[in-house]
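Quick one:
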Amino acid sequence: MKAIKVRRILVPIDFSPASLETLRFAKLLGARFGAKLQVVHVVAPIPIYAFARGVPLPPFPDKPIMQAARKRLQDLVLQSSLPPGDTQCIVRLGEASSQINEAAIKSRADLLVIATRGLTGLKHAFLGSTTQRVIRGASCPVLVVRENEHFSAKERARRGRTPLQFQKILVPLDFSECSRVGLDYALEFAREFGSSLLLFHSVVIHSYALSDEYTALEVPNILSQQQDYADEEMARWRREIEKEFGKIEAKVSVGSPVEQIDECVRTEGVDLIITSTHGRTGLKRAFIGSTAEQIVRHAPCPVLVVPNRAASKRPASRK
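Output:
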């Protein structure tokens, strides 16, 4: 397997406390990988509803605003003790997520490190999340930073004073080629940080299986068959991986993947989740949603999402 090469790390900055903490996190990652940091700030255009009443507005003063944003980024680089010559400051105008992804492509970023506000409920449904839109369109892996909420305040403070630690990494699997993409990345990431690995799968009975009274009677049999299949697949993947990586943990659970992963993170002391995304788009994504996005929204620890489109760049599958 090829080792992970992270030469350029892109960090979106909106000057919120969360994004400033993300910059500190990215700085530690950059030092670990010997990577250069690139910070990007997106200036939002005047919202379209400002023109709804037909009131003429003066031309958008983009040049002064862009210059001010660049100066603020440059000051932030100095305050963060980042080398100005090795840290690129990028300012773009437009919709945040699309501009961030375009900046990642143009700057050839190997990793994108971003914060999340963790919106849920109706607010998330109507407003969406810049972080989740970035994940959907990203051309490189995206590390979503969130404080490890399941650790005590004392433990979080201790970890904040020490070098970056990922002692245990959880990898969700659905035994598809897509989840193998995330697993391959996780294996190399774990090697880099000396982390232990926990493979995880959750058996789910879909709601349509309960819609018919006769079908519902078969749920125990269906569940048993799915558990047997999951146990066999997990054992096979585990044996295969242990030949290369060494001893790892594996767990098969029953229930909502997001809820079960959340519980596993808290009980097993997981520091990081590494998952892949199937990259669904359009109506299929709108109605089905994305497990990876739900994990990002609810996980109590950082999540690294590896886009399935990166499959062509990953090492060849194991035989």
